[in-house]
């Protein structure tokens, strides 16, 4: 199991209106704590892009353990971030997806380009060793 | 028998009202005893229609969105109506992945989701006057029982 505490020095935390942004080395973990709709998408997009640029982020993990709902605006947010990191060989992943959100992902075909993990820890373990 | 119900909600086209509209439609549909999955489907479809009215119908100005819901038997009908710019070419707008606002990272999947998550979808629009999106879905226990009955029948045959 990946020990998150060991990486203290490389870790940064930011919080803005319900969404928590954690940085582990070059991985950005976006912990969604509310519905991912158009209203929240605008804020998350802006904040995530700032963090991606400033911290030379390569991989992005969206943690859905606190978000029970997502619509097509969420697909837009994830696709947009995917496009940001794909050119430097980065990966985009989602973790802790419930069945409601999972259906939206499956219907959109997003799983063709992003990976799903059971937990953020599993995603971090995998992506940091890429 | 008490199997009809109606409601009308009017709200401003502000993005924080997307979650408000979802919550209201879910509360209204709760009377049909829907499954969690059915409820999620309805919420997603309403979210898409309301977001379309806000972004495309009214663009940068604030207008009024009306959400009309009715229950007839086990069928829920939801109408999302705006007095916005209207849609010039409805079939083009409904094409999967088509969007007029790629700069907003719109995925172009809104109408596809409404179609996928509801049983019926109708769009009426007049350019300069506004748009009505009408969606129907059979929901709840009665429909499930019908499904079980059919399954049982098939097994016997």
From TrEMBL, chain A:
The family line of this record is: Belongs to the anti-sigma-factor antagonist family.
Its recorded name reads Anti-sigma factor antagonist
Q: Where is the STAS domain?
A: 28-127
Q: Which InterPro entries match?
A: Anti-sigma_ant, STAS_dom, STAS_dom_sf
Q: What are the leading ranks of the lineage? A: Bacteria, Bacillati, Bacillota, Clostridia, Lachnospirales
> What is one Pfam family matched by this protein?
STAS
Q: Name one GO molecular function term.
A: anti-sigma factor antagonist activity
From TrEMBL, chain B:
Q: Name one GO molecular function term.
A: sigma factor antagonist activity
Q: Which reaction does it catalyse?
A: L-seryl-[protein] + ATP = O-phospho-L-seryl-[protein] + ADP + H(+); L-threonyl-[protein] + ATP = O-phospho-L-threonyl-[protein] + ADP + H(+)
Q: Where are the transmembrane segments?
A: none
SMART domains in the record, alphabetically?
HATPase_c
Keyword field contains Manganese? no
Domain (Histidine kinase/HSP90-like ATPase) spans 37-141
Q: Does the keyword Magnesium apply?
A: no
- Entry EC number(s): 2.7.11.1
Keyword vocabulary terms for this entry: ATP-binding, Kinase, Nucleotide-binding, Serine/threonine-protein kinase, Sporulation, Transferase
Q: Report the InterPro entries cross-referenced here.
A: Anti-sigma-factor_SerPK, Anti-sigma_F, HATPase_C_sf, HATPase_dom
Biological process terms in GO annotation:
asexual sporulation; negative regulation of sporulation resulting in formation of a cellular spore; sporulation resulting in formation of a cellular spore
- What is its biological role? Binds to sigma F and blocks its ability to form an RNA polymerase holoenzyme (E-sigma F). Phosphorylates SpoIIAA on a serine residue. This phosphorylation may enable SpoIIAA to act as an anti-anti-sigma factor that counteracts SpoIIAB and thus releases sigma F from inhibition.
Give the protein's recorded name.
Anti-sigma F factor
Species annotation: Mobilitalea sibirica
């Amino acid at each position: 199991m990946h020990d998150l505490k060991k990486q203290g020095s490389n870790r940064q935390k930011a919080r803005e209106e319900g969404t928590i942004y954690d940085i582990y080395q070059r991985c950005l973990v976006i912990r969604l704590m509310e519905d991912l709709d158009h209203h929240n998408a605008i804020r998350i997009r802006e904040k995530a892009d700032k963090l991606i640029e400033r911290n030379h982020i390569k991989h992005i993990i969206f943690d859905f353990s606190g978000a029970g709902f997502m619509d097509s605006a969420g697909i837009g947010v994830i696709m947009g971030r995917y496009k940001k990191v794909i050119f430097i060989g980065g990966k985009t992943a989602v973790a802790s997806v419930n069945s409601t959100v999972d259906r939206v992902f499956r219907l959109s075909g997003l799983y063709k380009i992003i990976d799903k993990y059971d937990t953020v820890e599993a995603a971090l373990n995998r992506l940091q060793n890429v | 028998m008490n199997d009809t119900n109606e409601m009308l909600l009017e709200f401003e086209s502000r993005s924080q009202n997307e979650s408000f509209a979802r919550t209201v439609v879910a509360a209204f549909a709760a009377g049909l005893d829907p499954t969690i999955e059915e409820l999620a489907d309805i919420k997603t479809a309403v979210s898409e229609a309301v977001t379309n009215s806000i972004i495309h119908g009214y663009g940068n100005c604030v207008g009024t969105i009306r959400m009309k819901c009715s229950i007839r038997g086990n069928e829920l009908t939801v109408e999302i109506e705006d007095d916005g710019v209207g849609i010039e070419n409805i079939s083009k707008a409904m094409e999967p992945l088509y969007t007029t606002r790629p700069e907003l990272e719109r995925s172009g999947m809104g109408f596809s989701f409404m179609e996928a998550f509801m049983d019926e979808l109708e769009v009426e629009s007049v350019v300069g006057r506004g748009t009505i999106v009408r969606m129907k879905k059979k929901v709840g226990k009665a429909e499930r029982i019908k499904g079980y009955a059919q399954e049982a029948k098939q097994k016997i045959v």
